[in-house]
Amino acid sequence: MSDIKELKEYAINNNIPIMQDEGIDFLTTFIVKKQIKNVLEIGTAIGYSAIMMARCSNDIHITTIERDEARYMEALKNIKKFELEDRITLIFNDALNVKLEEEFDLIFIDAAKGKNQNFFERFEGNLSMNGYIITDNMNFHGYVKMKEEDITSKNILGIVRKIKDYTYFLENHMLYKTTIYDVGDGVAVTERRG
Ligand code: SAH
Ligand code: MG
């Protein structure tokens, strides 16, 4: 058995943007409350959030996708350390090249922030009837709430605009309804309309 604190320290020391404490508490509480059993995660990084989700109950399974080889290798190592190899399936690929057949009762999007809508559209067909899609970093480190003229980095401004477009896409979708919670870095919870 290993220690979550060490994982978090590794992430901080290596600049790996794992989920904030408030966000991960929200996510794991949600999983327990809704009795989620089968999760697809886009954006494994070093496996922190996948491990936290897997630890919610003994009969939960996580499939998680990472395109960065070094992070994928680190995630493999961590999942072994936590003895979760049988409950976490790691896929090393760009999520936009992955095609899955299974259904998931939670799809957790936490990868390239400008591509949320692409991930959403790629995997919505894998969402179970009563499933949820949760998207992290809807505030993008607070930038989404800033005046655009105060954002000096073109790169950041580009991502901020994509997140605003994605917010609009979610809030105006005919098939889904979304609530955005101001916890952690902003978490969107999407479900099918009744
Ligand atoms: N969910 C993790 C943090 C993920 S950080 C946690 O909270 O512990 C985002 C990760 O998404 C990065 O490691 C990045 O390499 C990965 N990523 C970005 N775009 C991707 C894509 N198109 N396909 C797969 N992984 C992607
Ligand atoms: Mg995140």
Overview of the structural elements:
This protein is an alpha/beta fold and 194 residues long. The protein has a single domain (2-192), classed as Rossmann fold (3-Layer(aba) Sandwich), CATH 3.40.50. The protein contains six helices and seven strands. A seven-stranded mixed sheet has the order 3-2-1-4-5-7-6, with helices on both faces. Helix 4 (69-81) links the parallel strand 2 and strand 3. The radius of gyration is 16 Å and the shape is globular. The N and C termini lie far apart (42 Å).
Write the topology of this structure.
Blueprint: H1 4-13, H2 21-33, E1 38-42, H3 48-54, E2 61-66, H4 69-81, E3 88-92, E4 104-109, H5 116-123, E5 127-135, H6 154-171, E6 176-181, E7 187-192
The chain binds S-adenosyl-L-homocysteine and magnesium ion.
The CATH class is identified as Alpha Beta
Helical proportion, percent range: 25-40%
Count of separate structural domains: 1
Q: Helical segment tally?
A: 6
Element pattern in H and E: HHEHEHEEHEHEE
CATH architecture: 3-Layer(aba) Sandwich
Biggest β-sheet, characterized? 7 strands, mixed
Instruction: List the bound ligands.
Output: S-adenosyl-L-homocysteine, magnesium ion
Q: Order of strands side by side in the largest beta sheet?
A: 3-2-1-4-5-7-6
Unreliable spans: none
Strand content is 15-25%
Number of strands: 7
Distance between the termini: 42 Å
In angstroms, what is the radius of gyration?
16 Å
Structural class: alpha/beta
Mean pLDDT: 97
Question: How would the global form be characterised?
Answer: globular
CATH topology: Rossmann fold
* CATH superfamily grouping: Vaccinia Virus protein VP39
